[in-house]
């Protein structure tokens, strides 16, 4: 979950390039939405919403399985 960006040894990497590379790694690991979500209080999901999310995920799973089989 942690991302590391160390300045490269070739001596040609600028600080701006290093920051851009770190941002790409952080966004690729999907850690930023998690960290931003922890900054604010969020209510627990109700049973109904949990069930709806599970049904939606199940339908996506079935659809992807079907696509993989016929692809």
Description:
- It is flat, with a radius of gyration of 20 Å.
- It has helices spanning 15-28, 32-38, 47-70.
- The protein is mostly helical.
- The model has no long low-confidence stretch (mean pLDDT 87).
- The protein has two domains: 1-40, no CATH class; 43-71.
- The protein contains three helices and no strands.
Quick structural overview:
This protein is mostly helical and 71 residues long.
Question: What portion of residues is helical?
Answer: 55-70%
Largest sheet properties: none
Determine Rg (CA atoms, Å).
Answer: 20 Å
The helix tally amounts to: 3
Q: Which H/E pattern describes the elements? A: HHH
Structural class label: mainly alpha
User: Any low-confidence stretches, pLDDT <50, length ≥5?
Assistant: none
Q: In what range is the share of β-strand residues?
A: under 5%
Nearest-integer average pLDDT: 87
Q: Could you say which overall geometry the principal axes of the C-alpha atoms support? A: flat
Number of domains as seen in the coordinates: 2
Report the strand count. 0
Oligomer: single chain
Q: Gap between N and C termini, in Å? A: 32 Å
